[in-house]
Amino acid sequence: MIMFLDENLTPKHYATDSIDVIDFCKLYKLDFNKGNIIKYICRAGKKDNELEDLKKALTYLEREIDYVKKLENL
Q1: Could you tell me where the DSSP H helices lie in 14-49?
Q2: Which of 11, 31, 48, 56 is most enclosed, with most CB atoms within 10 A?
Q3: Which residues of the chain are modeled with pLDDT < 70?
Q4: What DSSP designation does 64 have?
């Protein structure tokens, strides 16, 4: 579970009974785009607009795909 200095500031969409998303991303050494994909997928449906979080995850996935394509063309 995420530990903040003030637990009243912990957003419900970040709460978990298992591994924290940030810890998961660190464990797998995910870069910014991949970490955000995981973050938005994990919290999708926990906030007001599930579709918005899924679209955000897709945006980061598209950015990562573009980045990898550019690396392959070097």
Answers
A1: 21-27, 32-43
A2: 56
A3: 1-16
A4: H
